[in-house]
Specification:
elongated; single chain; six-stranded mixed beta sheet; Rossmann fold; about 35% helix; alpha/beta; about 30% strand
Length: about 220
């Protein structure tokens, strides 16, 4: 009888923890901030970055409807990353081809975040293993960015890039509230990886890009 009461109390405690962590919402302020990228060198061109077009599937837009201006926030993050890495002689947010040598334009093709419980969490008695530290759930985030570089004088596309990345982390029942309400860290890591990969790709193609600034 005592054993049954203990199991009942444990199960009740598990239910409280589940309920307390069920209102998870991703946070834009978490998604769109991360540590600066390290410099690899400076490309001797004046570059302009246009606002990225939001081309996410409708399902993804609905899932993150609480976050506003994702196109502007993602663009601002990319601008900040490239500026801090001193990737170009100069880089500004502009669509004016008269002021720059190359234009960077692109699309946000995917941006996701979700938090979910593992099925074991809902199986009576079996779910008590989560009190021993077994993972109870997982946060997952990802992104996919398309970017193309255009010769500002001719309008010709110099190069195209598409990069995607994902990140995830599991959490125990005791970490559930913190992990599920700090939504966005996994997407942030994915965006940072994409920024870093784009930085290296642009640097590797620097000869093509500098050619665009020649008369």
């Amino acid at each position: 009888m005592m054993q049954g009461r203990v199991k009942g109390l444990l199960a009740g405690g598990l239910l409280v923890l589940l309920v307390s962590g069920c209102a998870a919402l991703p946070k834009g302020s978490v998604m769109f901030t991360h540590t600066p990228l390290l410099p690899v060198g400076t490309i001797d061109v004046k570059a302009g970055l246009q606002i990225l077009q939001d081309e996410r599937p409708q399902k993804e837009k609905r899932a993150l409807k609480t976050i506003s201006s994702i196109d502007e926030q993602a663009t601002s993050l990319l601008l900040q990353d490239f500026q801090q890495a001193k990737l170009f002689e100069s880089l500004e947010l502009t669509s004016d081809s008269e002021q720059v040598d190359i234009l960077l334009r692109g699309e946000i093709r995917s941006l996701t975040w979700r938090s979910r419980w593992y099925p074991v969490t809902f199986i009576p008695y079996v779910n008590l293993v989560t009190f021993l530290g077994f993972p109870a759930g997982i946060n997952e985030g990802g992104a996919r960015i398309y970017l193309e570089v255009v010769n500002a004088r001719t309008g010709a596309v110099i190069e195209r890039y598409e990069r995607s990345s994902g990140s995830s982390r599991t959490y125990s029942i005791f970490q559930a509230t913190d992990h599920r309400t700090s939504g966005g860290e996994e997407t942030r890591e994915a965006l940072r990886t994409i920024s870093d990969e784009l930085k290296h790709a642009l640097w590797n193609d620097r000869a093509k890009l500098t050619a665009a600034s020649s008369p």
